[in-house]
Every structure is written in C-alpha cells, then in structure tokens.
C-alpha cells in the first residue's frame, strides 16, 4: 500500500513536495485554506540549485516563458529620476536571471504535479493527533483523515507549525511591515524595478509584470509585531496613512487602492525553529525557515528544501531517519541564507531628506563603472552564479 502524505499550503513548497512524493509513488493530498489558487503576488526569483530542481521537474521552459521582463533595479527620487541603475547583469542588482510572478510559479507547479495528487480548497487543519499508524487529522469542515506524514507548508504565519511545535520561539521580528498589491500600468511606467525611499520612513516599489499591470509594495518600520486580524478596509486605511505625504507615486498608489481587492500587509518575521519536525509531522518552505524578502532567497529555499524532504522520505522506510537527513543536508544552507547585511533593514529606511540623499548617493556610487569593475575582480558581475548548494541526485542514488 502506498504511503500517504497530507500537505498544508499550496504555495511554492507544497506543490513541489507533492510533485516529488507522487513521483516516488506516494499518495498525496494538498489542502489550502483559500477557496482557489492564490495567483497574485510579487516578482520572485529562482537561484542557485533551485534552477536544477525546476529543470528536473521539466518546467524550466514554462517558467522562462512567463518571465516578467524586468530589466533591473533603479533607485529613483521623488521626481522619478533614476539616481542609480543596476541592470540584471550588474553586480548589486536584485533582479535575477529568472524573474516570475509568484502566482505564475504556483500555477506551473500545481499543473506539473501528477494527476494522482488531490488538491482540496477552502479547508485547513483543526487538530492533529499522532497514532501508532499515522497522524489523525480533523479539518475545519468537520471531515477527518489519517496520514502517514503531515507536512506544514503554509508559509511564514503557518497555523500548522503551531499545531506541530507550539507557539513559542519560532519568529524573529525584523521591525518592519511589508505590503504587496497590483495597480494599473500607466504610460510613465517602465520595465525597471523602481525603488523609492521617502523621508517619511516609507520605502515604495513598483515592478513590471507580464500581465500589463504593475506590482506595488509599500514598506515601513513598526513596533507592532503581532497585529489583530485586519480586514481589506483596515489594510487600505493603514497603507493610505503611510503613503500620505510620502512623495513620488504615493498619491497614485493611495488612489489605486480603491479598486484593489487583494492585499498582503503585515509584519515580516524570519522563522528560526530549533527543529523542523516532531513525530510524523514536518515543516517545509517559509513555515520552516522563512528568510523574508530582504534576502531574496525564499523561493529558492522552498524549492530546494521540498525536493530534499520529499526524496528523503522516499529513500527511507522510517520517517524519523528521513527528517533527520533532511535537516542534516539542508539546515546549514537555509540558516546561512537567512543572514542579513549589518543594519538591514533599519538602515534602508530614512527619516529625513538628508538620509534619503545618502542612500541614493550610496546607490549611485555602487552602480558606477569604477566600483562595478572593482567588484568584478572578486567574482561580481552577472547574477548567474555557480550553485553554492550541492543538490543531491536521488535518481543516481537509486540506480546505485
């Protein structure tokens, strides 16, 4: 009889783990609390050995076909004048070779999973109870099921992680909030990621997508790390408050919120759990090791980690051995990927025009030909680097 797995969360990690478990003969069910696929979201990138993972899944061409077309990163002033430009091939650019909308990647991953994988929407886990022969799960719609393994892949704010490990000691608050939403594209927009630093302590982004719209982000410092649940109206009111008097495209973004029906807004935490598993339950993706957008590594970690977790489960008869191997092979890289530059994110936020001028001047110096040439001596230049992580080849291991 095939082994069974329940995966909570249809983001990047969940479908990736489902793909590889099903590829190895497991019977997989994936649940999502939303009523349908969440196809919104911001531009994300795929780097390091994650490129090898999607190549093994046969979806690299599909991903490249949905490239956002982003040319690189520009620091702009309140008049929308570029103070520093980092094309995609330049050292210091946060735009990578493979840029795709999060929703597009999720759509590709779900469509790549075998037909045997069952997807259930509008449902979440209510309780978990471990038995000798598996985990008994009660869902919030009153249904139940028993599975050999339960995987929490439901993101930074994972409710499943809390059921598995409890509430304490997992979140490291970075002192700032972030938001993502989609706005209409205007004639003055271009195909650069435009980064604006306001003297009011707000950082705002506008990034191109492949759907004729723009992806916006508003970011700010806050002491509030555990806000009450916010309605859509609450989120719009908070963003309008932060955008008031910020300059640049602030008024445009504030006005555009009127027609926005999907906003991510909340505090940013890094997830640093001492263990990624308990009993027959295990964490994957941001639920296990969220690095936050400041590292640009969230998608890469989700793809690599889920690949390793699923293949280790297939390679071992005992789940405890599989979970141990998963952490031994991947935890060090995940933790290294969480490291932030000194002073980040605080130094990125300005509280005066003088600080804004320093930030833009620093970016201009970094983008200069002299600095770029010097940096290239130390391996800078293209973002297409050699893989730092040595991805295990489980097919070769089977053949041996």
From TrEMBL:
Domain FAD-binding: 5-336
Domain of life: Bacteria
Pfam families: FAD_binding_3 (PF01494)
UniProt-recorded Gene Ontology molecular function terms: FAD binding; monooxygenase activity
InterPro entries, A to Z: FAD-bd (IPR002938), FAD/NAD-bd_sf (IPR036188), FAD_aromatic-hydroxylase (IPR051704)
Keywords, ordered alphabetically: Monooxygenase, Oxidoreductase
Protein name: FAD-binding monooxygenase
Species per Swiss-Prot/TrEMBL record: Litoreibacter roseus
